[in-house]
Specification:
Jelly Rolls; about 120 residues; mainly beta; about 5% helix; seven-stranded mixed sheet
Amino acid sequence: MPQSFYLIDAEGNVVGDINPIRITQGSPGAGYAAGDDPSFVTGDSPAIIDLNAALSRNANLGHFTNTGPGDISVKISEDGTPTFGDAILLKNGDKISLDGANVDQLEVTWVADSSFYWFAK
């Protein structure tokens, strides 16, 4: 079943489609974004979470959490190019902290059916 994914501005207006990750923007001036995929399956993979596009800058605070039963692989890009660092395998409940990092994009790859949540500032 297809899911709808969208970008919402601080006033609650839909300003664009984000596929395949749903992104919601915080309150005016908050400068943060958050999103999730409650049903991350093989057809969703790989998914790119473009934090720079959501924040208009790289993220330096936040986290990515595997909230589902299956494993997820995550890679980090600092410059927005297809060059990502090494894969980090996350099991249920595992979290990556973005605090103090310089994160442009996250690449999320399916390992087993799962779900995730992320927050960035």
